[in-house]
Amino acid sequence: MYGDGKTSYDKSNDGKHTELAGCSARGIRHASVPTKMRLTYFQDKQLKLELQYKVEDEWQTCFDLEEPPAIPNIAYVGFTAETGELSDNHDIISVAAKNLYTQPGTSNTGKSSGTKNKGRKGTGKTANGNKQGGSWTWFFTKIILFIIVAGGAYVGYTAYRAKAKSHRF
């Protein structure tokens, strides 16, 4: 459903007049792998929904719109549900939102290899290869190394001072 914030959901027709796109996902219930959804939006270029419910890391394209509706630059993510008579329970376990950028000179449709970072979870790099901000582990490692160096310098200086004091006479 593509809503404008004012139009209400038509329960009697199951929201058909506000439907933007959709697909059938047979076998999504009791799937052998965790069911996941990946929504990719390139501003004014592409809106694509992919589902993972058959095999791990195998994404089925639900829909791919080359001319999506305009979404404001400042967007809000919300999850809600309202249906006609048929309903089902779904638990949202986690949500991850990422910014995608294309390399200069490439297509913005998301079909170039520079826009996806498939199979590279946790590498610390964005899809275009730029390094993201560091992690807390690296920060704490630097702090611990600094404390060790400062402690070693203090012990060395204290030993030097004690040795110099004993050789005074």
Describe this structure in words.
The protein has 169 residues and is an alpha+beta fold. The protein has two domains: 11-97, no CATH class; 134-169. It has one helix at residues 136-166; strands at residues 36-42, 46-52, 60-65. It has a three-stranded antiparallel sheet with strand order 1-2-3, with no helix packed on it. The protein is elongated, with a radius of gyration of 27 Å. The chain crosses the membrane at residues 136-160. One of its GO terms (cellular component) is endoplasmic reticulum-Golgi intermediate compartment. It is a single-pass type I membrane protein. This is L-type lectin-like domain-containing protein. Residues 105-116 have a biased composition (Low complexity).
Question: Concise description?
Answer:
InterPro entries: ConA-like_dom_sf, Intracellular_Lectin-GPT, Lectin_leg. The protein is of the alpha+beta class and 169 residues long.
Q: What portion of the residues fall into strands of 2 or more residues?
A: 5-15%
User: Mean pLDDT, nearest integer?
Assistant: 78
Note the total helix count.
1
Low-pLDDT runs of 5+ residues are 109-128
Shape: elongated
Oligomeric status of the shown chains? Answer: single chain
- The ordered H/E elements are EEEH
Rg, alpha carbons? 27 Å
Q: Tell me the helix content.
A: 10-25%
Structural class: alpha+beta
Strand order of the largest sheet: 1-2-3
> How many domains is the backbone divided into?
2
How many β-strands, per DSSP?
3
Could you give the distance between the termini? 91 Å
